[in-house]
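Notes to self after the Tuesday call (sharing in case useful).
The group wants a holo model before anyone commits to mutagenesis around the pocket. I volunteered. Ligand is nicotinamide-adenine-dinucleotide. Logging inputs and output together so the record is complete.
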Amino acid sequence: MRLEGKTAIVTGAASGLQGEVMGYGGATARIFSKEGANVIIADLKDEIGEKTASEIRDGGGSAKYVHLDVTSEHDWINAIEVATSEFGELNILVNNAGIGDPSIIEETSVDSWNRQMDIMAKGTFLGTKYAIPEMRKAGGGSIVNVSSVFGNVGSLGDSVYSAAKGAVRTFTKATAVQHAKDGIRANSVHPGWGMTPMTVDPFSDPDILDPKLATVPMGRLARPEEIGYGILFFASDEASFATGAELVIDGGRIAW
Ligand SMILES: NC(=O)c1ccc[n+]([C@@H]2O[C@H](COP(=O)([O-])OP(=O)(O)OC[C@H]3O[C@@H](n4cnc5c(N)ncnc54)[C@H](O)[C@@H]3O)[C@@H](O)[C@H]2O)c1
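Result:
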C-alpha cells in the first residue's frame, strides 16, 4: 500500500479496462488503486472512463471518473473540486493526457501545432497551476508529468509532439524548483513506444512497427504497467528526495 489514503488525479486515464488495450494512464490508475489511493480518472472519453472507474470499484478500489478537457480552466477547477470534496484533499497529480501527430515539420499545420501544444504543454501547466494550492493545503504533494523519449531527443517525425513533450520536461523542472519549499515534488516520466489506444492502429502495421522496434535494444514495446510503475515511484513517498528528475522507460531506445 504505497499510496494508502492519498488522493490522485490521473488525466487521460479512461482506457483502463481489463482485457482491452490499456493506456499508460489507465494502467497507472489501476496500479494507484491497488496501492491504496483514491483515484480520480479524468478524461474526455466519458463512457470508457466511467467503466474503468466502476471496474476498479468492483475490485474493491476507490475510483471516480470526472470529465476533464485538460485545455479548459473551468474543467480543471471542477476536477480539483470533485477530488477534494469526495476525498478531502489532493496529494498526487499525473498529467498524462496526450495526442500524437507523426508529421514531419513541413507537413505540420498550425492547427496541429496549436492542438498538441494546448493539450500537452498548456494542459500540464493548467493542471499544475490549479493543483498547487490544494497540495500546499495538504502539506505537500507529488506531480508526475508524462513526457516521452521525444521530450529528450529528436524524432524523424512527431515534430510538434517533440516540442510539446520538451516543454513538459522543462516545465516539470520549473515546478520542482518553485515548489520544493512547499513540499511539492515534480518529476517527469519519459516512456518509449507501447501498444496503447493511441498507437494501436499504426503499430498494428508491421511496416510501421518493425523499423521502430529495430531501434529498441530490448526489441519490444512497453507494457502499460511498466510505465505505470515508474509513475508510481515518483508519486509515492519512496521518491521523497526526488524532484526535477526524469525517468526514461524505453527498453534502451535512447541509450545509444
Ligand atoms: N503509447 C506510446 O507509445 C507513448 C510513448 C511515449 C509517450 N506516450 C504518452 O503517454 C501518454 C498516454 O498515452 P497512451 O499512449 O497511453 O494513449 P491513450 O490514448 O490511452 O491516452 C491518451 C488519453 O488522453 C486523452 N486526452 C486527449 N486529449 C485530451 C484532453 N484535451 N483532455 C483530457 N484528456 C485528453 C485521450 O482521451 C486518451 O484517453 C500521452 O501523454 C502520450 O503522449 C505514449
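Two things stood out.
The mean pLDDT is 98.
The helical segments are 24-34, 46-58, 73-87, 110-137, 159-179, 200-203, 206-213, 224-235.
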